[in-house]
Amino acid sequence: MTRRVSIFGATGSIGCSTIDLIERDPDGFEVVALTGGRNVDLLARQAKALGAEVAVTAHEECLADLREALSGTGIEVAAGEAALTDAARRPADWVMSAIVGAAGLPPGLAALEQGATLALANKESLVTAGPLILGTARDHGATVLPVDSEHSAVFQALVGEDMAAVERVIITASGGAFRDWPIDKLASATLEEASSHPNWDMGQRITIDSASMFNKALELIETREFFGVRPDQIEVIVHPQSLIHALVGFNDGALMAHVGPPDMRHAIGYALNWPERKPLPVERLDLARIGQLEFRAPEDARYPALRLAREVMEAGGMAGAVFNAAKETALDGFIAHRLGFMDMAGVVEGVLTELSGDTGLMSAAFTLDNVRAADHMARIRAEEIISGAKTPKRSATWT
Ligand code: NDP
User: Fold this and answer.
1) 370 with 318: CB under 8 angstroms?
2) If 0-12 CB within 10 Å is exposed, 13-18 middle and 19+ buried, where does residue 247 land?
3) What is the CB < 6 Å shell around ligand 1?
């Protein structure tokens, strides 16, 4: 049976891997919407190759180029934030949410409102608005499937299990580009050094977030939201080979580990074929050749983002939206050479400390408008700190 699919963030790393799988089964899928940002050439090529109904760029100023690239094809074109959400309202059975950052939330919600199965790579959706995403899915009979490799691994380890028997969830971290650097050298890490990942081939932003472990910090919060486990049940372990993606510990002492190659097409393919398993074009691991697997505890001084994520989970409410927005702004600052690598955590902590005093904001109900307001406030505060207009407040715990 042909399934109607849409891919949000088609021109990115996850989007391209999703298209790679879809192109291998041309009769299995009908492509509804493909979206991108500034990479209009690639978006137009993808739309033509897949015969998409509509191609949408997030940026109005890119529309003319997209229109020209697709003229005469019959493929509709559109641009802007509202157009992304409109595209997500087009009936589709399966929607990949792979826009990077908080911009992925509104189209994801719109896809759930039309009852689609949402394959969620955009972890920011759950971090900023977990109850809103999962509540919208429940209200509309829609399904949310994890695509982050760790969460896909936990999801697979839980098949047929009773959540009441789960004692702990362990997510693994490669440790990123600087896992073996002396800690006192981290402050001088350059953009180029932070943008190269030892194991995974990913977009630049998530690669830098892996080096700082802000990515793992988001995943801690994502784990809490997705699986409903308590913060004290979630552990992070550094596993440099990135072959075990996560483990689930049960009340009889068993640990179920998910082992697979560091290739996102596994987790994407699992979500695409769920609830079935189908052959996927990923490497089959040769355990004898691998020989050994290594694990170590993450060091607090190297990865301050993990402590901040735990404080965010304790605080709840809009803390996730504030955390993510401050992190995105700090990351922009690092990419623009306005901040040092280790300054990013200081900016995020400063914003959290300051906004935690605004109880009206932090405990507001989970609506898209409130999440956006928290996001907006956090970006303003983060920018003030980065531009030196404010000195970040630091507290042992900001909650
Ligand atoms: P990329 O940076 O490679 O791609 C991001 C995509 O989003 C591109 O299509 C980009 O368009 C588009 N985009 C960028 N900004 C906007 C915006 N403001 N509005 C709409 N679209 C926008 O990211 P990844 O594929 O690496 O990651 C995507 C998501 O998946 C992230 O949330 C990430 O955390 C998550 N993820 C990624 C993994 C990976 O291995 N890459 C693993 C697990 C999760 P363009 O490039 O055309 O400008």
Assistant:
1) yes
2) buried
3) 9-15, 36-39, 58, 98-100, 103, 121-124, 148, 200, 202-203, 205-206, 264
In what side-by-side order are the strands of the sheet with 3-8? 76-79, 54-57, 29-36, 3-8, 94-97, 117-120, 143-146
Query: What CA–CA distance (Å, rounded) separates 196 from 176?
Result: 9
Cβ pair 106, 58 in contact under 8 A: no
Q: How confident is the model over 80-119, as pLDDT tens digits?
A: 999 999 999 999 999 999 999 999 999 999 999 999 999 9
pLDDT digits (tens, 9 = 90+) for 10-35: 999 999 999 999 999 999 999 999 99
Nearest CA to ligand 1 atom 23: 203
3-state secondary structure of 305: helix
Give residue 300's pLDDT.
Answer: 95
Both structure tokens of 218: 């988001």
Say whether 37 sits in a helix, a strand or coil: coil
Token code pair at residue 332: 């922009």
Of 26, 123, 271, 20, whose CA–CA distance to 10 is shortest?
20
Buried b (16+ CB within 10 A) or exposed e, 169-207: bbbbbbbbbbbebeeeebeebeeebbeebbbbebbbbbb
192: Cα within 13 Å, side-chain hemisphere: 0
Residue in 63, 95, 99, 220 to alter for ligand 1 test, most ligand atoms within 8 A of Cβ: 99
Mean pLDDT for all residues in the chain: 96
Does residue 391 register a pLDDT over 80? no
Residue of 392, 305, 396 whose CA lies nearest to 351? 392
Amino acid, res. 165: A
pLDDT band (50, 70, 90) for residue 220: very high
Nearest residue (by CA) to ligand 1, atom 32, is 122
Q: Which atom of ligand 1 is nearest to the CA of 264?
A: 40
In the structure encoding, which two tokens stand for residue 327, read together?
Answer: 């992190």
| pTM (2 d.p.) | 0.95
